[in-house]
Each structure stands twice: as C-alpha cells, then as structure tokens.
Amino acid sequence: GIQVEQSPPDLILQEGANSTLRCNFSDSVNNLQWFHQNPWGQLINLFYIPSGTKQNGRLSATTVATERYSLLYISSSQTTDSGVYFCAVEGKLTFGTGTRLQVTL
Amino acid sequence: DTGVSQDPRHKITKRGQNVTFRCDPISEHNRLYWYRQTLGQGPEFLTYFQNEAQLEKSRLLSDRFSAERPKGSFSTLEIQRTEQGDSAMYLCASSFRVSTNEKLFFGSGTQLSVL
C-alpha cells in the first residue's frame, strides 16, 4: 500500500514563530488531507488539497502531486496550535505518523 | 450541522466482555468510516460504508469485530470477547463523496480500555 512519511516528528516553537511541516507519499494520489489532532484527541480537518495551494487564516498548504509531497505552513503560531498534525491520503485515508507540535509562550 | 457524534466517550471493560460503540454521522453524509488509533500512531482504517452497504474491511478487523449501518444512518461497531490488545481510541468519520472530492469529518472518538 501507499506509504506516508511526515517530518519533522517533533517540533517546539515559541509563540509567534513560523513553521513548515512536510508530508511525502510513495504513489500518486487523488485525495490528500491535513488534520490537526488537539490535546483532547479531536481530529479537525484543515485542508482537502490533492494538488495546488490553499490558505485559511494563518494556515496554508501546498501539494505538488507530481513530486509526491505536501507542505503545511503555520504562521505566527499560537499555543492553541499545539497538538499533532497528520497528513492522510487516498479515499480510505492512510495516515502518516504525524508531527507533534508544541508552541510555548 | 451538529458534527459527527460518538457514544460512549470512554468505555472500560474486562477481557472477554462484548462492547458496542455508536456513531451518528453528519446528516446526509453518504459515507461512514471507522478507524482505530493507538498512542503515538496515526489512525488506521478499519471499515467503511456507503449508505447501508459495507464496502471494505481492513485485515485489521478480525472476526471478533462487526460493524453495521442500518438504513444508512447511524453505525455501530461491536467487539466480541475483547482482548487487552483491543485497547485503543475508536474513531468514526463521515463524508459526502462527490467523484473523488471527499473531505472527512471525525467524531471525538470512543476510548476503550480492556482490563
């Protein structure tokens, strides 16, 4: 099956800093989504982005399907951004292992 | 739109007991998925329904697991003769699929602890 790798595995930021999270996948995809799992376990859908670029407030995402990677940008990070960020691909969603983000004051 | 609802939020059971979880999807979503997540890992696909039809089951889903979605509305996931290895967060998600455009929305999950 398709493999999904995310980097970095862990990230600690000071509030206000920017960050880039990466997702590499092993085969072409028709479906790619980014999720944020908050400290209470709730998975929030951030983007549906099989290709191209989208922005939503301080978050934006870019997927380069031909090169099999996607990037999630977080600008001006806030403590509420803490949690685990997952990239997931294809219809039944194969998830990566996630990037654990901690934003400190 | 009240989101995807799961019940119970937590379940503690003894090994060998049966448990059943319920998921209420977003109304009019035609697809419903079940996932399992263990500590430090991403969610793993278990099974999914399109309306009332169960279309696929993962190899992770042993014979002790069964899922139903009567009338294409809510779904139940039953685990028979629970084992300690079944301890995990069980997540439900729903979507409205139009061609390949399919954005999933997750419930808060049911945390199962098997003693």
Give a short synopsis of this structure.
The complex is a heterodimer of chains A (105) and B (115). Chain A has strands spanning 4-7, 10-14, 19-25, 32-37, 43-48, 52-56, 59-64, 69-74, 83-89, 94-95, 99-104.
Tell me about this structure.
- The complex is a heterodimer of chains A (105) and B (115).
- Chain A is built from no helices and eleven strands.
- In chain A, strands 2, 4, 5, 9, 10 and 11 form a six-stranded mixed beta sheet that branches. A five-stranded antiparallel beta sheet of chain A has the order 1-3-8-7-6, with no helix packed on it.
- Chain A has strands at residues 4-7, 10-14, 19-25, 32-37, 43-48, 52-56, 59-64, 69-74, 83-89, 94-95, 99-104.
- In chain A, strand 4 and strand 5 (43-48) form a beta hairpin.
- Chain A has 105 residues and is an all-beta fold.
- The radius of gyration of chain A is 13 Å and the shape is globular.
- Helix content of chain A is 0%, strand content 57%.
- Chain B has strands at 5-7, 10-13, 19-24, 31-37, 44-50, 53-57, 65-68, 75-79, 88-95, 105-106, 110-114.
- In chain B, strand 5 and strand 6 (53-57) form a beta hairpin.
- Chain B is globular, with a radius of gyration of 14 Å.
- The mean pLDDT of chain B is 93.
- The interface between A and B is medium-sized, with 22 and 23 residues.
Mean pLDDT of chain A: 95
End-to-end C-alpha gap of chain A: 41 Å
From the structure provided, what is the oligomeric state, counting identical versus distinct chains? heterodimer
Note the beta-strand portion of chain B: over 45%
**Main beta sheet of chain B: strand number and arrangement?**
7 strands, mixed
- Amount of helix of chain B: under 10%
Number of strands of chain A: 11
Task: Give Rg of chain B in angstroms.
Answer: 14 Å
Structural class of chain A: mainly beta
Report the total helices of chain B. Answer: 0
What pattern of helices and strands is seen along the backbone of chain B? EEEEEEEEEEE
| Strand residue content of chain A | over 45%
Helix and strand element order of chain A: EEEEEEEEEEE
Give the helix level of chain A as a range of percent: under 10%
Shape call of chain B: globular
Q: Could you say which structural class the secondary elements and strand pairing of chain B correspond to?
A: mainly beta
Q: Supply the number of helical segments of chain A.
A: 0
